[in-house]
Design goal:
This protein has about 100 residues and is mostly helical. The protein contains five helices and no strands. Helix 1 packs across helix 2 (about 15-30) and helix 2 crosses helix 3 (about 30-55).
Length: about 100
């Protein structure tokens, strides 16, 4: 994927910005399930980071907020673990 983005950036940086800006909305229109697959790891990582920072600072209210948001979005009352992006997918793209 990176080589493709590199070429797009070299040839048409503004065009690449347009692709990036429209990518997720287009995916959402075409397939909400694929959209969820794309954004869920990012959301969980943000929530995990917020909870980690809140824990470090002793902010119990923020930890509670993270749990409530996680429950509302994913029906899970726990603080989410950080999601590691799929290394296998990255390796196959490098070939």
């Amino acid at each position: 994927m990176e080589p493709t983005l590199d070429v797009m950036y070299e040839r048409d940086p503004e065009g690449l910005k347009s692709v990036i800006a429209n990518f997720l909305p287009t995916i959402n229109r075409k397939s909400p399930k694929l959209f969820s697959l794309a954004v869920t790891p990012v959301i969980k990582n943000v929530l995990a980071k917020l909870a980690d920072e809140a824990g470090t600072n002793g902010n119990k209210d923020m930890v509670t907020a993270v749990r409530l948001i996680n429950h509302a979005l994913f029906r899970d009352k726990n603080v989410p673990e950080p999601v590691e992006f799929d290394k296998k997918a990255r390796r196959s793209e490098e070939r």
